[in-house]
């Protein structure tokens, strides 16, 4: 069972590496969309710096949605999911392997790209802000996985996926952006960070189980 | 207790309609069962249920004395080949080979068995339909499962490859494995029991 799970993670990572274009597309979307804000809002440094944290968080959330459909949909369509299930791998373990891969292939590059994006918007990135973004993107990978599994096989899954994921992502967005903003202003971010971590702790077991249930019934 | 597959009074419903009703079935170690029936008769549905991918509405399915939920893995070859176009032939077999101690040797042997050794480093998207089916069969041959479930295994295969499939299935049965297959054409499964659905 442990060997199967390890093999599934290796399989997912290998696929993510071969489809590196998906990760690149998410990161480029993140950077390009951020570059639109100064164009639309005007180059006022005070306004941009004030909005930098929120911009980064909302765009990280949207960028996380981009690779979800291929990550889950391809295995659903080509029979790969049946193969993994028949091999004896429990559905929640399949979902967990995909969620981890999503974070490594999309979350981590977005965290790295958030540093130059924040500098561009005139807000110096803080270690606490980056830590919050790391926790937040993990939450997004977990939530996105559930939404992707639930919308698998639905006729308009592409439309359904963001509608399912975005409402669930409000809590990490609120606490994460608040923590990062507090850190930027030199205030105490402990309580927001703790609430974000608490959300992650709840999502870690619940999301793979819920996604696994959706995979089995899908 | 001998290793066997036993179905008792199994009913399977799909989309609110009964597909298979009150099915009793026994398969001993080394046995083979060939499912036939017209399109939509429930061959794939029965195979998916045996694979644990669908739940029967009622009845019990036991494999080697265990209920299906905690039964060991099944070897599965579905309609779709489940190959990743971006991965090479070798890499496509890596997951299935994770039970083997020497994975690379096991993959090489499986590829050679289906005459795919020369294509080991070729991405699966470059393979023809028949070669993809053979690659899926090579993956099946790596499965540690004793029960193999094959949905139209010979689709796209030429005569030589069908003979290779026959040898693969015969070896599996000789080692005490069981095979349930569906097909519209004759399969190289000598002595297989037949079950007509629908």
From TrEMBL, chain A:
Q: How does it sit in the membrane?
A: Multi-pass membrane protein
Can you tell me where the transmembrane regions are?
21-41, 47-66, 103-124, 130-152, 159-181, 193-215
Q: Single GO molecular-function term?
A: heme transmembrane transporter activity
Compartments, as annotated in UniProt: Cell inner membrane
* Principal location listed in the UniProt entry: membrane
Does the keyword section mention Chaperone?
Answer: no
Q: What GO biological process terms does the UniProt entry carry, in alphabetical order?
A: cytochrome c biosynthetic process; cytochrome complex assembly
Keyword Cell membrane annotated: yes
Q: List keywords of the entry alphabetically.
A: Cell inner membrane, Cell membrane, Cytochrome c-type biogenesis, Membrane, Transmembrane, Transmembrane helix, Transport
Q: Which domain of life is it from?
A: Bacteria
Q: Which GO terms describe its cellular component?
A: plasma membrane
PANTHER family (alphabetical): CYTOCHROME C BIOGENESIS B-RELATED (PTHR30070:SF1), HEME EXPORTER PROTEIN B (PTHR30070)
Outline what the protein does.
Answer: Required for the export of heme to the periplasm for the biogenesis of c-type cytochromes.
Q: Give the family this protein belongs to, as stated in its UniProt record.
A: Belongs to the CcmB/CycW/HelB family.
This chain's protein is named Heme exporter protein B
Organism equals Endobacter medicaginis
């Amino acid at each position: 069972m442990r060997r199967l799970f390890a093999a599934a993670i290796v399989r997912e990572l290998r696929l993510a590496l071969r489809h590196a274009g998906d990760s690149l597309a998410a990161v480029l979307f993140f950077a390009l969309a951020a570059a639109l804000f100064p164009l639309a809002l005007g180059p006022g440094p005070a306004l941009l710096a004030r909005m930098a944290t929120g911009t980064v968080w909302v765009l990280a959330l949207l960028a996380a949605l981009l690779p979800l459909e291929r990550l889950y949909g391809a295995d659903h369509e080509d029979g790969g999911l049946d193969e993994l299930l028949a091999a004896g791998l429990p559905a929640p373990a399949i979902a967990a392997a995909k969620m981890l891969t999503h974070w490594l292939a999309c979350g981590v590059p977005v965290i790295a790209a958030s540093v130059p994006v924040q500098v561009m918007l005139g807000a110096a990135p803080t270690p606490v802000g980056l830590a919050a973004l790391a926790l937040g993107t993990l939450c997004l990978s977990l939530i996105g996985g559930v939404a992707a599994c639930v919308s698998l096989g639905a006729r308009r899954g592409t439309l359904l996926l963001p509608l399912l994921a975005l409402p669930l992502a409000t809590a990490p967005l609120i606490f994460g952006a608040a923590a990062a903003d507090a850190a930027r202003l030199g205030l105490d971010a402990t309580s927001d960070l703790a609430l974000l971590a608490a959300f992650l702790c709840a999502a870690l077991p619940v999301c793979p189980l819920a996604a696994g249930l959706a995979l089995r019934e899908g | 207790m001998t290793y066997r597959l036993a179905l008792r009074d199994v009913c399977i419903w799909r989309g609110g309609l009964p597909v298979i009703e009150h099915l009793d079935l026994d398969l001993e170690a080394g046995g083979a069962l060939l499912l036939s029936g017209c399109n939509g008769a429930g061959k794939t549905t029965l195979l998916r249920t045996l694979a644990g991918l669908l739940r029967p509405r009622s009845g019990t399915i036991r494999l080697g004395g265990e209920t299906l939920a905690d039964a060991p893995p099944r070897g599965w070859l579905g309609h779709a080949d489940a190959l990743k176009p971006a991965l090479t032939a070798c890499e496509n077999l890596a997951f299935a080979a994770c039970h083997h101690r020497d994975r690379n040797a096991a993959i090489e042997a499986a590829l050679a068995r289906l005459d795919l050794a020369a294509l080991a480093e070729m991405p699966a998207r470059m393979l023809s339909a028949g070669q993809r089916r053979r690659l899926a069969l090579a993956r099946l041959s790596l499965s540690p499962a004793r029960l193999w479930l094959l949905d139209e295994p010979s689709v796209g295969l030429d005569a030589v490859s069908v003979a290779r499939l026959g040898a693969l299935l015969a070896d599996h049965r000789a080692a005490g494995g069981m095979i349930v297959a569906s097909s519209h054409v004759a399969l190289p499964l000598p002595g297989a029991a037949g079950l007509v659905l629908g």
